[in-house]
Amino acid sequence: MQSSSFLPEDHLKLPDHPGVYKYFNGENELIYVGKAKSLKKRVSSYFNKLSGSNLKTRRMVKEISRIEITLVNSELDALLLENNLIKKVQPKYNILLRDDKTYPYLLVTKENFPRIFQTRKLIPKRGTYFGPFASVKAMNNVLDLIRELFTIRTCKLDLSPYKVAESNYKVCLEYHIGNCQGPCVGFQKEADYLKDLEHAKHILKGNLGLAKNYFKQEMQAFAENLQFEKAQRMKDKLDLLEKYQAKSLITNPSISNLDVCTLVADEKTAYVNYMRVKNGAMITSKNVELKKRLDESEEELLLTALVRLQDQFQSDAEETLINITLENPIEGLNISVPKIGDKKKLIELSLKNALYYKKEKALLQGLNQDKKDRVIKQLQQDLSLPEIPDHIECFDNSNIQGTSPVASMVCFLNGKPAIKEYRHFHIKTVQGPNDFASMKEIVTRRYKRLEEEGKPFPKLVVIDGGKGQLSSAVEALQELGLYGKMPIIGIAKRLEEIYFPGDSYPIHIDKKSESLKLLQRIRDEAHRFAITFHRKVRSRNAFGTQLTAIPGIGENTADKMLKHFKSVKKIKEASLEELTEVIGASKAKTLIDWKEKNKGA
Description:
Helices cover about 45% and strands about 20% of the residues. The protein is of the alpha+beta class. Its main location: cytoplasm. This is UvrABC system protein C. Keywords: Cytoplasm, DNA damage, DNA excision, DNA repair, Excision nuclease, SOS response.
């Protein structure tokens, strides 16, 4: 594979060749990965047809500062490479496949007399993994079947030849009840054990036919040698295997090895069901949710999910059935849309699962919304508010011995944090550590601005503190002529007491109440936001004071650098050229000289 880098204006210079393209923004952050049969045509379409694109696509194109491409041999290779990159980096404009579960695997260990057990950790050097299993119950059913059919050991003993030769081991209960043949004391040869293990592996792969043929041959061989008791044991195992297969049989057993993938979608989300079928039996079924990031087609969504799921479940399917006709089929992928017969029935079954998953998600979302509504309605009742508090703002101060005094305001809409509405405040009119005066200043500034801009006031104002802070906030509202236009309360940390203006005694909400938990969450978020900002300001001020102590470096110069480089660390690491661009050659040299003199200080 060959990689190259281009500027957005050079998109017409891209080769007419299959490959993967990567878009980077001005901060060199990978924001989008795509595949193409023709890199030139696909990438150019983003820049030539913007009028027909949605808002998110246009926003992404404006962010692109560099394009990197990787040439591959075929469109299928491009699809697989795109999948790996998205899975690894998860760029912000690519389709988001929601799958945060950790699924179990069955591990066949790499040791003498290998064991089989379940695990959720993938460490390749430990052995061979089978799975993942979308259902723990399905995995346990397969493991139970293997242990009934074969005598696979469950102990953790080291069964290397020299350890067994030392004869320090004794057979355990598993041997006496017939679940193990005693390899620890030399009662079973490793070659015989590995023969059983090989058949167990076939079952784990879903190839039940090979195991069935093995038991049939063994049964016939024992019967011909008049070993009827052993022949009966083989027959019992064959019956057990056939019974297990019959339970999972969903279609004609002649349908040997295929995947089924169906998709249903609405404006923002797609729901996908994926099934693996071997010898007519469903060995895997999994549902996933995909969040659209741009204006992706159903074809793009389905291919994204299909490749990711086939990779996750280590699929070796010879054919894949889907419910959407691909406008641009990918050479190398054996995909079809069946119209009749057993394969059509598999599509219908998969679609039924996808639709049920969509309905289940919608129901869950509705329940979550009901919970949010219930909590804020409960808060209205507990605080005797005139309206449902679907817009809450909370204020908090932060300073250490009066240094770098700052404050914060957080906003919750419908019981959820509205991060874009959060605000930081530098305290401007108060000298020294005075929480009451600081609270009055920030409340005044916040609601004076909202009134000037004609924006709606909150349905509830929360002040982090007791009667003193609350009185200061009330005073601010009174001076603005806004007191009484929005309910206001104070919440004291020690006993979680709720104070109302003019009331000498606080009220207490039940400690287990969801409404109190919401207030605590809002208060804690305001505190966190204020503390984080305070640390940044202290860090800036500490270094800014050092800067202004240097002859030739004033407050304006220090502020310029802090605004441009964003952090103290980056200023210290900046080169002479970078500093010159921001503060000029003379001051940059002064700063570099100062840094050299103070190295290690």
